[in-house]
Structures are given as structure tokens and as C-alpha cells.
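Deliverable D2.4 — example input (C-alpha cells):
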């Protein structure tokens, strides 16, 4: 089974979609394979976090003024 997986992975670049917190892409790169990870969850977390920080800063600014 392992040999079959190695053959498939050796066919070309690897696109790891929806990877979450796995180390697959990092391990593939360490083995010299070309691998890219795409996970929209991280973009959504970043966007939501940025909005929450901006809202919190605005709220804090209003409190300091009063």
C-alpha cells in the first residue's frame, strides 16, 4: 500500500485542499515534493478575527472618551 501511495504522490505537484491542521503538506515538502495547501477556513477565521478586533478597538475608544 505504501509503495502505491508513493507512486501516486510522485506523479506531480500536490494540492492539499481543506487540510485543516494536518502536517501532510509540510511532510511532503520535507520529502522534496512540490505541495501547496489551500484551506478557506483560515481565511474565514482571519477575516472574522480582524472584524472583531476592529469592533473591540472602536468600543474601547468610545469607553475611553466617556
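Example output (designed residues):
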Amino acid at each position: 500500500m505504501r509503495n502505491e501511495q508513493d507512486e501516486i504522490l510522485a506523479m506531480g505537484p500536490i494540492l492539499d485542499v481543506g487540510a485543516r491542521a494536518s502536517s501532510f503538506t509540510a511532510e511532503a515538502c520535507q520529502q522534496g515534493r512540490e505541495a501547496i495547501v489551500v484551506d478557506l477556513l483560515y481565511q474565514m477565521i482571519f477575516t472574522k478575527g480582524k472584524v472583531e478586533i476592529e469592533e473591540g478597538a472602536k468600543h474601547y475608544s468610545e469607553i475611553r472618551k466617556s
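The chain has a mean pLDDT of 83.
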